[in-house]
Records
---
Amino acid sequence: MSDKYAMTIDGAAVRAPDTFGVVDPATGEVAERAPEASRAQLDAAMAAGQAAYPAWRSDEAARRKALLAAADVMFARAEEIGHIITLEQGKPLSDATMEVVGAGVWLKYYAELEVPVEVIQDDDSARVEIVRRPMGVVAAITPWNYPLLLGVWKLAPALLAGNTMVLKPSPFTPLSSLKLGEVLRDVLPPGVLNVVSGGDRLGAWMTAHEVPRKISFTGSVATGKRVAAAAADDLKRVTLELGGNDPAILLDDVDPEAVAARVFGGAFQNNGQVCSAIKRVYVPAALYGDVVDALAEQALAARVGNGRDEGVQYGPVNNRPQYERVGELVADALAGGARAAAGGAPIRGPGYFFEPTIIADVADGARIVDEEQFGPALPVIKYTDLDEAIDRANGTHFGLSGSVWGTDADRAADVAARLECGTAWVNTHLALGPNQPFGGFKWSGVGVENGPWGLYGFTEMQVVHRSKQ
Ligand code: NAD
């Protein structure tokens, strides 16, 4: 344990009078400590962002160069930062390293993204252009499942657009973001990226702070609503990337074995801790037994363990409250008459390990179907009527993404078009990229990230109308 993790404020390493413990979820023990930012330190970070803004917004070439250099830092230090992600988040080192590489891919994408001025009129009377202007200081708040990548999803477009940023990671996983601030101190001018750490209180201070014009938030629906309410008073702009309860609908022409392997991958990536992971599967009655068996086979074969160990595919659940919640939802389903076709219980020993779990003979109305479990437990629901299955898939407050699986891909695409969600996948799930807008319908979010649309979320639209008369 050490005080090697410092915040980054105005380009300098800043420690705090207080610190808080960061638990390694593979052991359940505090492994490191992170600074607990004071109110004055948050004010200093906001002031640094404000001071850096005029020069940063005025030099696009410098911004592109800096983002490319930041991408190179991610590629060069992927494994080193990957170790930090595994320590605080729990995911296997190979996945953690890929998360850092992904951060590099996003930074490079935005460094090279051209955002053309749109000319909507150019005639004898006037030339009218639509131009995207930066907003100022962005307050960015992130969750614990992809602690580094989700921060970079905000940082890359926000900075390219000419904004500066104060970033606050989840208190469960602050270390990789603190490291990000550190490794970019030589790459970005002081004040352009400030990283502060602390508990939920710090997030609330940020959303109520007078400096930021924009809040970019990724996290749960409940907190997202609080963020929106806090932003309303000052009419701060918000992007909210919130929870999901993604359905996968299997059609009656799928091959159960083949589809089960891919659906399992879409459900259990990052141990089910993905906002847009498959969280419920709808299966035609005629195929139900075969699909449940094939999913159970996948679950039983999965290698769960400490993310540092070779060959481990799935680590622990990230934190104790989430671990207890997954256990509670599984126990509730089993008490209600559902069957664990695989798993169904925590794994004995230290750390927050849970058996990869397939819940069969369960229906809408059970908490594990209706709520977001965000962990390694997947309910499989039988249907006899496709229209009814689509209605059930849509019948929630969530609307992040969903997928439809069928050998006849056109038919599957027709069904996918009826899903009420931000991304409708056909014969795949979790296929994300920096060029595709990602966001949710209904309670799953407001606005999108990624692609030019994600960048527009960090800008105000300005009309430049030049009269020619
Ligand atoms: P959370 O809402 O508990 O916390 C997210 C962040 O908000 C943390 O940094 C936390 O400290 C901060 N926070 C807490 N209270 C706050 C307040 N009042 N004001 C401002 N900030 C506050 O979420 P979590 O448990 O860390 O993350 C899991 C959730 O995130 C899941 O619901 C998941 O689906 C969602 N998620 C969504 C996306 C997406 O892109 N849609 C991506 C990843 C995760």
Note: The chain has two domains: 7-243+443-467, 246-397+401-433.
---
Amino acid sequence: MLKVHTVKCLQDNYSYVIHNESTNLVGVVDPSEFYPIDTFVKKKFNKLDYILNTHHHFDHTGGNLELKEKYKSQIIGSKKDEKRIPGIDIAFRDNETFKFGNINFKIILVPGHTSGHICFFSNEEKIIFTGDTLFSLGCGRVFEGTYNQMIDSLNLIKKLPGDTLIYCGHEYTKKNLEFCMQYENNEFLIKKKKWISDRLIKNLPTIPVTINEELQTNIFLRCDLDIVKKKLNMLNADEVSVFKKLRDLKDSY
Ligand code: ZN
Ligand code: FE
């Protein structure tokens, strides 16, 4: 069994401390900074076997070197980011498997936000760490890839089992919801709005969410639907044009 502990970092980042309860291995996904991760890990486990990075941006790797030095952790990342991820020890290619004890994480290459961005997906545990590719009710900005690549990447995630839990890199959900609701007002979004404010009032994360929930609410996963195309006056446009339009609107939102 995998247990996931959410640790808030920086302004609105989430790092995730993962514990394989049967083998007692401990890892952290995207340590934004040293101090909050160290505080949590020191008290609870007093070890850190692995550091997993979804991509090279500083708010996802900022804690790498200090944590590695203190805990002698192994740093895992994308083969494409071998030169950009601080302290990387093991580089994975698309579709390869990282064995976290008896739990397998499939590496899914998802270029778009950055060219080497990866997700860690466990089919047994029905969990995916999506970094800055897919957020709840949103997606990452397209910095290094093309819109085509980004939509292909999102479509890879869309195809995973619907009950898969998504753990993403930022708490952007409220702002993302406001954007989605400019164009759609379905029952799921209305319910979600209430749920999000309940969570945030209690200072609780709005993460994780399931893929099924996102399919009903996240407009960036709904670019292929006529109901969305119509709203944008793009009924005859293809998915990638709709996606680009939405992404541009969101960039200036
Ligand atoms: Zn990023
Ligand atoms: Fe980020």
Note: The two ends are 40 Å apart (CA to CA).
